[in-house]
Description:
Elements: E1 6-11, E2 14-19, H1 30-45, E3 51-56, E4 60-62, H2 67-70, H3 75-94, E5 99-103, E6 106-108, H4 110-116, E7 120-124, E8 128-130, H5 144-152, H6 154-163, E9 167-168, H7 169-174, E10 180-182, H8 187-199, H9 203-216, H10 221-235, H11 239-249
Parallel strand pairs: 2-3, 3-5, 4-6, 5-7, 6-8, 7-10
Antiparallel strand pairs: 1-2, 8-9
Helix pairs in contact: 1-3, 4-5, 5-6, 9-10
Bound molecules: acetoacetyl-coenzyme A.
Acetoacetyl-coenzyme A binds next to helix 2, strand 6 and helix 4.
Amino acid sequence: MVYKNILVEKKEGIGTIKINRPKVLNALNKETMQEISKAIGELNQDKKIKVAILTGEGKAFIAGADINQMKDMTSLEAKEFAELGHSMLLKIENSRLPFIAAINGYALGGGCETIMACDICIASESAKLGQPEINLGVHPGFGGTQRLPRLVGRMKAKELLLTGENINADEACRIGLINMVVEDNNLIEATEKIAKKIASKSPIQTDFIKSLVNKGTDIDIHSACSLEISYFSSSFSTKDQKEGMSAFLEKKKPTFTGK
Ligand code: CAA
């Protein structure tokens, strides 16, 4: 598929979506969000792809939703815009693919909201993260008021949302907003190393684990544990379970086929 605002690359089981509007620090306009949504669908369909990376071109990951496009929106247009953002992020969350955010620079506003829908977040040491919407006379519209407190707790979330202050990558890691910080020039290599490790696992299990954590943490513990039992029992009708356990007992490396 041909895209205008993003680049999509597929290699060695890894699908990479790179937002490519560096002149506006990869700000998310409607067209870019529609393209990202389409690209997620494209990667989901491709059975050779086992894991996805989301990153940005230039000095930003995503510096937020596009302020030029939002400035004169009516309430109805803003509602449709927010719905588009939410729908894109739900596509990431509901994708069978683990998504790794490689945060190469600013992840602000809608950019910070985007990483929160991903499964693993790796940031370069110079990255800056935050929810500065309050400085624009609004609040986050792509899930920031909801995913942020679930990730870092209500106190820290309210501090970031109410002050609009950005934090550096180390602080983001300390509060549990991201997984790790790497040197700027090592970001893609470090991200691909983790992506390759995940790509070597059973794709059935990466999908199950992602669903269980995402769905399970939004429902009560008893229903969540029942869900785990149901996925666990289904795992025993897969070839990957037989392969994984036989390989262990035969002291071999397993080769998972996703069957
Ligand atoms: N939307 C549109 N354009 C943006 C943008 C955004 N979110 N962020 C940056 N740009 C544009 C700038 O307007 C500028 O364009 P021009 O060259 O035409 O002037 C270009 O990108 C480069 O930006 P700066 O000159 O500002 O770069 P800098 O290095 O001096 O500053 C920055 C970088 C601190 C990230 C600064 O650009 C900034 O504060 N950006 C806005 C961050 C923000 O408020 N994000 C939240 C958006 S609202 C949102 O996301 C709502 C939601 O939840 C749905």
